[in-house]
Design a protein that fits this description.
By secondary structure, the chain is mostly beta strands. It has one domain: Neuraminidase (6 Propeller), CATH 2.120.10. Helix content is about 0%, strand content about 60%. It contains one helix and 29 strands. The strands form six sheets. Strands 3-4-29-28-27-26-25 form a seven-stranded antiparallel sheet, with no helix packed on it. Strands 1-12-11-10-9 form a five-stranded antiparallel sheet, with no helix packed on it. It is globular and about 50 Å long. The termini are far apart.
Amino acid sequence: MMVAKVMMRMKTNRRILGIALIVVFLLTLSLGGYTQDTWLTYFEGDEYGALLDVALVGESDFIAVGATNHRHFPPLISDALAMRVGLDGTVVWERTWGGTGFEQAHAIAPTTDGNLIIFGETTSIGAGDRDFTLQKITPDGEELWTHTYGTAFMEKPFGMTGLGNGDVLIYGLTTSPAGRREAQYAVRVDGDGSVLWEHTAETAEEELIIDAIETQDGAIVLSVVINGMDDGMLVKLDAAGDEIWSVRYELENHQYAASIAQTDDGFLLAGFELPASGIRQADVWLARTTSEGDLLWEKTFGDPHSDDYAVRLLRLADGDYLIGGLGERIALFKITESGDVVWEQRLGTAGGHIAYSLTELPDGGFLVSGMKTLINGRSYDIVLMRTDALGQTSSQDP
């Protein structure tokens, strides 16, 4: 493990207006005695690729993070992007940072001292190839410190989970050591970015950690994808990073949990299923397990005419759950704990979208961030929206 403490350059984008093509739809409606604004915004152009996560700041703003150029194929050239936005959709400021390579911000979370921490990746600095990064910023976007984590081989990030004591867990995959096979990789760090422990699992198969949650007993449950998409697995670690149990789901089709949430007596899993034969169309996979990871039931649902699957699962204040996914338009599903669909919304313009982050607001509405596909794997536009409690904006089909 090499930890480098560096200060990355931060560039302020002063051209907030006029750079992006922004389509904002505002609706003021009365729901249960309060007034709620809804809107949907696209940011187009070379400097806007994706917004992958959101954190609320104060009572009226939030900060969204992502990348100026979200790509899966070379040339991998991008800066990390942060935007502070009002709950009315007004952009307060934008900032980018990076070097000569590829930088992207995957997640953001508040810290106990009133600042924020951003998790991402870099090829410009660090131990070599691609590494994890953590950057601490003030609510005004001022950089306080940046650390990198990784080896001379490639580490690829998938997410960050804030823990109850102020620590954070960052996770994804590593290709170290020899052979460059993808392996589980997670790092627990304290509030100053110092490493407390690392978790890796070298097996004969390729594995990556796609999601993680802290349980009520202070343990950590990882959602692991095996061999690209063959199977999914849950792994439970204690607070010190030692494995307690693991359960692999070897079912008829290919499936994995892209996101997990804790129920009162187990876990709810939401993700991806692809038939092993016949019509190869992806659907939302939903499953319920016991507290030991044993499967209780599974089901699939989605658009019968196109691929769609769950990317994010959020437990709501009323005990139901919200799913954001990949599909035609921006796909949102509200479901019960038993897996019944309460409502489904398809928002935005025609074309494939991914809803990467979901945030429930105090008024019952939701913030959703993600991207619209222009050229799959190579070119995207940012999408950002605020909905009402039914997942609606002023225009379902702008």
